[in-house]
Write a structure and sequence with these properties.
- There is one protein chain.
- The protein is mainly alpha-helical.
- It folds into 3 domains: 55 residues, no CATH class; 82 residues, Orthogonal Bundle (DNA polymerase, domain 1), CATH 1.10.150.130; 160 residues, Orthogonal Bundle (hpI Integrase, Chain A), CATH 1.10.443.10.
- Helices cover 48% and strands 4% of the residues.
- It has 15 helices and 5 strands.
- The protein has a 3-stranded antiparallel sheet with strand order 1-2-5. The chain has a two-stranded antiparallel ribbon with strand order 3-4.
- Helix 7 packs antiparallel against helix 8, helix 7 crosses helix 11 and helix 8 runs antiparallel to helix 10.
- The longest helix has 20 residues.
């Protein structure tokens, strides 16, 4: 039983009794065992079993059910992330505590512990999101009663680091390998994620309509999956991206193929090479050099006044809130807005001036 106690079950298939309808065989014996355990766990055979069956499991005891049932349809990368969070964060912290024993103070202590370990607030929210999902799944399956707990903490949105258009041109020009020139423009001119670039096949490139269909992605372990958010999209090909694609061998299966074999370029190779390309172009690489090219795509569309719903569809965003992050003004527009407060032909104070300008309050 879940609490460690034992109940003995017995019976014989094919003889008068609860299993008389079963064959006297290994299969019949296994079915008899299954029925006996089911009756015991539902409390129809034993008062003590009925009490034991109501005991809620711990996170470790419920882990396999959660991963094998709830997460089975998720992308492999998402499954690995949940498994890692359970193993390294949730199971060690909660230990033998049962799911129905978890209170708000326990969640808050988990958050405090993770923050003290130096984890970012976004990472902490990723951990508590798995805890929340597991508990809610247990509620849906009537393993534990409904609860009212708060899991997420406030966290700033990640800064959008887009590569300047002039730097994109320099990076593309610095490529000696035509595959990487095409990859850079797939990010900056078509908004593909790194995994989507590596998964792109020539059958996805409509050369008559000059469009790309984005429907697959490769994770870091080269497992082929759906795109992020399961969003399939079609993106027109710009003139310079078209020229870059025409320089590649379209007789291969993958657009960005390895040289020796017709297989997609590996994640670790593309990660290392993009830093070398930025350096060769004299451009400081952002923290995410591939993904920042996608940020360039969305940011430039927003600056050009493209409607937000069109940007959402071209970028493959699942939520409009994600797209709205790009509908921001750049530094030059902000400076013009502040300068407009002074009125026309009014010189503002300069840093390091010898004295206060007119209108400055002094004390």
């Amino acid at each position: 039983m879940p609490d460690g106690t034992r109940e003995r079950v017995s019976g014989t298939p094919g003889v008068p009794g609860p299993y008389h309808d079963l064959a006297q065989s290994k299969v019949g014996a296994q079915e008899a065992e299954r029925r006996a355990i089911a009756r015991l766990m539902t409390g129809r055979s034993s008062t003590r079993a009925a009490t034991s069956s109501r005991r809620a499991p711990t996170i470790e005891e419920y882990r396999d059910t959660f991963l094998d049932a709830y997460s089975a349809a998720h992308k492999p990368s998402a499954q690995r992330a949940k498994r890692s969070i359970l193993r390294h964060n949730l199971i060690p912290f909660f230990g033998p505590m049962r799911l129905d024993e978890i209170r708000q103070e326990d969640v808050d202590k988990l958050v405090a512990t993770l923050l003290k370990r130096g984890l970012s607030r976004k990472t902490v929210n990723n951990v508590t999101a798995v805890l929340s999902t597991l508990l809610r799944y247990a509620v849906k399956n009537k393993v534990i009663p409904a609860f009212d707990l708060k899991f997420a903490i406030k966290a700033q949105s990640a800064e959008i680091r887009a590569v300047a258009p002039e730097d994109v041109a320099r990076i593309a020009e610095a490529c000696t390998d035509p595959r990487y020139r095409a990859a850079i423009l797939l990010g900056a001119d078509a908004g593909l994620r790194a995994g989507e670039m590596r998964a792109l096949m020539w059958c996805d490139v409509n050369q008559l309509a000059r469009e790309i269909t984005v429907s697959r992605s490769l994770d870091r372990t080269n497992v082929l999956t759906e795109t992020k958010g399961w969003e399939r999209r079609v993106v027109p090909i710009s003139d310079r991206l078209w020229a870059a694609l025409k320089a590649l061998d379209d007789r291969r299966r993958y657009v960005l193929s390895r040289r020796a074999v017709d297989e997609p370029m590996r994640y670790d190779v593309t990660r290392n090479n993009i830093h070398r390309i930025y350096k060769a172009a004299g451009v400081a690489p952002p923290p995410k050099p591939w993904h920042s090219l996608r940020h360039t795509f969305c940011t430039e569309l927003a600056k050009a006044g493209v409607p937000v719903n069109v940007i959402k569809e071209l970028a493959g965003h699942k939520s409009i809130e994600t797209t709205l992050r790009y509908m921001h003004t750049d530094r030059a527009a902000k400076r013009e807005a502040i300068d407009a407060l002074r009125g026309p032909n009014v010189q503002g104070p300069r840093l390091g001036g010898s004295g206060p300008s007119r209108g400055t309050i002094t004390s």
